[in-house]
Hints:
By secondary structure, the chain is of the alpha+beta class. The chain has one helix and five strands, in the order E-E-E-E-E-H. The chain has one helix at about 90-105, and strands spanning about 1-5, 20-25, 40-45, 60-70, 70-75. The mean pLDDT is about 95.
Amino acid sequence: EPARVVVEDRASPLVRGWGRSVTRTDEWYGFQANPRPHVHVIASVDETSYTPGPGRMDGDHPVAWCRSYEGGRSVYTALGHPISAWSDPAFLTHVLGGIRLAMGSVPFKC
């Protein structure tokens, strides 16, 4: 389902070239617990831009984040469910940015 993804940290390599928000078509899963208190949120989905159903997260729905972990960094994205995402240059830039961030090859503090 198409939805608006809000870029919360425009300096992150995960969202390079995305602007303040982008419309993405994906499957939007809710999480049992909101990860925001424990991670650095890079992007979230605007729950008013689609029909969240039982996966609703009450308006705060992170979809991409990173965090420091045992001297390194972990990166998570909830995007990429449709097969078409894997031929989309913007999504591939998102994935490559996450790999580079996790490797520490780009300067960015999680």
